[in-house]
Amino acid sequence: MNYYLGIDFGTSGARGIVIERDKTILLTVQYSLEHLSKNNLALSWQTALYSLIEQIPLEIRKQLQAIAINGTSATVLLCDAYGNPLDEPILYNDGRGVTVLETIKKLTNDNQIVVSATSSLAKLIWWSKQTVFTEAKYFLHQADWLAFLLHGRLGISDYHNALKLGYDVERLCYPDWLQNLPFSNLLPQILAPGTIIDSVTPNICDHRFSLSPNCLVCTGTTDSIAAFLASGASQPGEAVTSLGSTLVLKLLSTTKIDDASSGIYSHRLGSLWLTGGASNTGGAVLRHFFSDEELINLSQKIDSQQPSLLEYYPLLSQGDRFPINDPNLEPKLQPRPSNRVEFLHGLLESMARIEALGYQKLQQLGADKLTQVYTAGGGAKNLTWSKIRQRYLQVPVTSAINTEAAYGTALLALNLAV
Ligand code: ADP
Q: Quick one: which of 110, 116, 145, 387 has the fewest CB in 10 Å?
């Protein structure tokens, strides 16, 4: 049998999913990253990666044909000539790059995804000012480095991870300003996600792991794109709404759209574009007022076909970027009815309105017409909410086929997804 392994390095844990040629899931393995010490994080990731592989039964492991890995976007490492990290990795949400933002603005003409304190580019430029940088030979994303541990080749990444580094995903090259940096030799070579890099190293297929020497390792992707790949959306006009702590929209389109000020940008997905934006509204606001159990019980008492007259903009603090780009936008949670069912109805309905406005904005900017919305995240199981959202969106709203990033990455390994 032929099996394919996708590995997801998320924020709280690492998971591996093995699929068969027909995309069915054979097994899942996991490793918690929640209690890692901040010292030698890279070594902990290596331990997690090796543990995931070892948890796969030997007979299946031997028949793995390909492996792909996704990492958290903008989690990066600085390595020496042998791939050893020279410093602790800088995590996705680390904002130390704020000190080099002015430099980036000048370099890039101020209008790109990289003008952010947490972008991979900000982290690279921050590192370039540290003494350790003189020894640096490679700048890699988390997924690149983990894959290197398996295939042994340094300096290779994919254009999903490289977007926040400043890679031009339209022209498929680094822009001149990036190539002209004095340390551009550290930049990885960029390939399409799911491209075969090499087979596993002899070390990896030895008696410890017993992988086949023919098992291939592919370029990876980021965790959120991997989750999109898992959803089943594949045609222009199909979208995935993630109803987690925040509200994240992703719409597959034949046109690339960008509006940096609203946080809207496009990832390349084969011959299509994955357009999207994220609002600060979402499940975190619901959790502030209701327990998960209350959300289930009270939602069942809502008549989804009856519009709520309450017009909120549910936020926990001031400001949103998408679909309304206003750092001073005030949360609107008044008037507050004494009946909790009515209050929840107003919140769900208002978030559905914001979601619809978001898709409207993406379409106004040129994205394809919305035809179908798949839902992921904690709010996906709320069928009352799905019906309310369908009333606003006017297209079918269903749960995503699968929401696991590891599954989307296994599809990459199968080389069918992109
Ligand atoms: P994240 O990974 O972004 O933290 P999850 O995808 O785990 O979030 O989803 C958690 C969110 O889902 C919580 O904020 C919670 O309020 C919301 N949630 C949980 N159950 C329901 C429900 N039945 N209806 C609506 N929202 C829910």
A: 110
Amino acid at 222: T
Amino acid 111: pLDDT: 62
- In the DSSP assignment, the letter for residue 95 is -
Decide the pairing of beta strands 3-9 and 13-20: antiparallel
The percent helix, strand, coil of the chain (3-state, each to 5) is: 35, 25, 40
Total domains in the chain come to 2
Distance 381 CA to ligand 1 centre (A): 9
State whether 43 and 179 are in the same domain: yes
> Residue 275: enclosing H or E segment and its boundaries?
strand 272-279
What is the reported pLDDT for 260?
81
- Tens digit of each residue's pLDDT (9 = 90 or more) over 195-237: 999 999 998 888 789 999 999 999 999 999 999 999 989 999 9
Whether residues 265 and 285 share a domain: the answer is: yes
Name the 3-class secondary structure at 214: coil
- Rounded to the nearest angstrom, the distance between the alpha carbon of 379 and the centre of ligand 1 is 5
CATH code of the domain covering residue 205: 3.30.420.40
> What is the whole-number distance in angstroms between the Cα of residue 273 and the centre of ligand 1?
27
pTM: 0.92
**Ligand 1 neighbour 286 (Cβ under 6 A):** yes
85 alpha carbon, distance to own chain's centre: 23
Q: Indicate if ligand 1 lies below 6 Å from the C-beta of 296.
A: yes
In this structure, are strands 138-141 and 238-243 parallel, antiparallel, or unpaired?
A: unpaired
Give 11-62 pLDDT, tens digit per residue. Answer: 788 999 999 999 999 999 999 988 877 788 999 999 999 999 999 999 999 9
For the four alpha carbons of 330, 335, 336 and 341, in that order, the dihedral sign comes to negative
